[in-house]
């Protein structure tokens, strides 16, 4: 350690000036910025992750173990209560509810994740560029967002799905188009404060291009808020699809999703067919909460400021 | 009769995620009526926490433990229920906080905020409270207090806000006033005014005061007794005079020795205190200073010394020293010449003979105030820089000093090309920076680097130090990956950091270490000039000395030129060959460091120098009156003629009518003043302020 000390820091004539930076003051090398222990230390994170893993396994691996026919309508088997053949009973069309929860969850999760990823990427880049450039460009880019925001989401969705036959990817595209605005505004706000920080000026001093500053410095530092908003988007999109399905404008049969199951089940709630409502509602809530928990925890684990006492 | 305030064995613990921090550990002191007690030490030594513990205002997780006792006039405060404590706070003990911006509620008028405390403790009608508020605001020197009761905090300047905070503390005539770094956020000129105000009020109201500060100069001038704190304990306690003249604790000695002194010439190496204060979650056994102490023996590392010595001068040390450190051989002026005579001699002549590294001519920068496009409203402009010229020679250090708002940071940004002037030119080695665009400009940037003030925001928190140092090389496309890695190791060694620092993230370093990384990054491209904007003002005294030594050493070994921008005249005195004094967007005086400090020609320079507190009680006591009156006028509407005339003791009618041109006082020493303090050379009128003739 002392071999590395600058001789200028410890002149031989002054005994008090021993090594300016004794080794013990520096932490051991290799500690990660995103520390897994800190992340796992967080109970919410653990609970959220386990829940997501369970739901994902249920939807994607479940059908391999528990095969059901989700295509053929069997009115003779309609509205059966839970029993040996159908652990969670059947719905009005005679589909097995447990199996339908699995296939329905698949489209819900796929939609949520796909929308979250696309909106996060688009929103982050858009917001970072607007915030970094500032001035007139920023004003213009933000007005574009305002125009998009002025479009009522549900009305537009209803129009589109009534004009075209909805497909999963069609709805993903539409939802993505509508929900990157929030991420963009969040990132822009973050970047507006980040770009005045001295490390951004330092990068300019080195001759760094705007592209480099945005991608290397601004986006990673805004990642905390983006990831949180991303996980919320997963939850929001699943709920939006449910809302569409609930209004009867979701994916056409024989496609399934949790929202459609809920709206169908509600019709027969008064008949006492509880198994057609509560399992779907419960899974929907668990999934949404799990993603929000993980979002919060990721935010905390990425937040540098929390590391300082 | 018991002392007014008696603190004994005060111990404060704070529970955090990392464990229990023993922030204050067995602190005892007394405070007599009318006395000022200084609590000094580096950040994290427990001085603020001591003040907060006395007030019973602990942060979350904090608690006073053990047999701690705080007696105010014989009455025990520890363990008192919150409702009783509330009656004491703001009434018998009051506090003045550091940051006047965050300590005032921006949504309430200052009259309301001062009167609030009266209503809480004394009752009475709102009108009576407002009367009292106006009276106290007048007492603290707020002009026209009655008319300003309705003002909001943002309408006041920093100095006036601090006066309002003091008024809030004094409104109920407390017996004890705790001032926690009351002037740290203020300019030296305002600092001197506020400290004088506090001293005056203390005498008039017969208050006792605890002055918490890290500034040894402030301590020297404004305290009767001093407690030096280290790692949650009192290291030494003595009268101010004896402490500065005959300190017994090595920590006090090193602390004083490491302060750059305004009243001494540029010494060589500043003595530093190696290492950092101990972690208070797990304080070391034995003397807490042992790890950083040059006199430490095995006994110091195992047994903890108690406070001993006569009642008037107590210290906790096994090997007490005898007074200040003797003048070291490095104290001889111009040590740089001793280190590398040839280079230093070259420095002196190069500035004059050779073409300068950087030349700025008539820089003007104005910022329009927002909302100016509204119809019917006058377009208003902040005059940040109004025609500043300067030159910097090879290997030379130019210091820029002035109060905040004088345009020194704007000047620094223009010099390195972070901002463009509205008019005027910056020439680097004959190339006009203003004409460069795009790629050419980006490549040219390697010659100009900047060292930033805030070690927390100047490094990207998401990059490892290795990547931070490689980034400039990557951008400029210098070397292969392995060559870049080698260069990083080289840079780290140069700034005194171990090689494995490259694998760490910035938050794993202390402030001083981060400034070292910042300096290494600036050096990565082997620039010709580094502009250092307040390079050490965020650091503690002992660490500050380390960074200053490093900057100086690297300058000699790399032949760098520096522009050092600072409000701290002592720092600039230590580093700079020449100094420029700025006032409200103009360069009012330029000269060699000695010209400025010993033969200042401009009244502003003289006042600024006078306002700087010197860590010597005799010098401080001999001062009378603040150095510069009043506050900086608004740069929206600078005064006509000489901009300093509104605060100048020598101003006459001519000063308002005619703008003074720079006059020559000695080789390279110019000042723009109609009535200078020195006699100018006959019929010599240099065209530009910045020319070293």
Automatic annotation (TrEMBL), chain A:
It comes from the Bacteria. PROSITE patterns: ABC_TM1. It is a multi-pass membrane protein. Pfam families: BPD_transp_1, OppC_N. The keyword Cell membrane applies. One of its GO terms (biological process) is transmembrane transport. Residues 15-24 have a biased composition (Low complexity). Residues 109-295 form the ABC transmembrane type-1 domain. Residues 1-28 are annotated as: Disordered. It is found in: Cell membrane. InterPro entries: BP-dependent_transpt_permease, MetI-like, MetI-like_sf, OppC_N. One of its GO terms (cellular component) is plasma membrane. The keyword Nucleotide-binding does not apply. Keywords: Cell membrane, Membrane, Transmembrane, Transmembrane helix, Transport. Belongs to the binding-protein-dependent transport system permease family. PANTHER family: D,D-DIPEPTIDE TRANSPORT SYSTEM PERMEASE PROTEIN DDPC-RELATED, OLIGOPEPTIDE TRANSPORT SYSTEM PERMEASE PROTEIN APPC. This is Peptide/nickel transport system permease protein. It comes from Streptacidiphilus jiangxiensis.
TrEMBL record, chain B:
Pfam families: ABC_tran, oligo_HPY. Residues 5-256, 358-609 form the ABC transporter domain. One of its GO terms (cellular component) is plasma membrane. GO terms for molecular function: ATP binding; ATP hydrolysis activity. SUPFAM superfamilies: P-loop containing nucleoside triphosphate hydrolases (SSF52540). GO terms for biological process: peptide transport. Keywords: ATP-binding, Cell membrane, Membrane, Nucleotide-binding, Transport. It comes from the Bacteria. It is found in: Cell membrane. Belongs to the ABC transporter superfamily. This is Peptide/nickel transport system ATP-binding protein.
